[in-house]
Amino acid sequence: xxxxxxxxxxxxxxxxxxxxxxxxxxxxxxxxxxxxxxxxxxxxxxxxxxxxxxxxxxxxxxxxxxxxxxxxxxxxxxxxxxxxxxxxxxxxxxxxxxxxxxxxxxxxxxxxxxxxxxxxxxxx
Length: 124
Known about the structure:
It is found in: Endoplasmic reticulum membrane. It is a multi-pass membrane protein. The chain crosses the membrane at residues 48-67, 79-99. Keywords: Endoplasmic reticulum, Membrane, Transmembrane, Transmembrane helix. InterPro entries: ATPase_Vma12. By secondary structure, this protein is mostly helical. It has a domain at 42-104. 65% of the residues lie in helices and 0% in strands. Helix 2 (42-70) packs antiparallel against helix 3.
């Protein structure tokens, strides 16, 4: 009886070239790769946490010192100034967070096809 010959296995370079060509063909219909979420790693979480703590501490010290100088060393007013400085520091930190991570939500300009590329495709 006849036996079928063994199939040849493709080399790694050929497989990589095939995958790249396939990705190029289906780039318009496949979903884009997911953008990395903020705080997806332990390092990001720890860094942001330490930054928030430092901002809160600095805001408290600044408010405490400012109110202590303004209200003639009153302990209650100094503590109130510290709390006010802490709240202002947290508002600044929230604003920085929004600005920093809102850029990730927008699609990058390089990923959208330019109008000149679209004109070339239409004329072909």
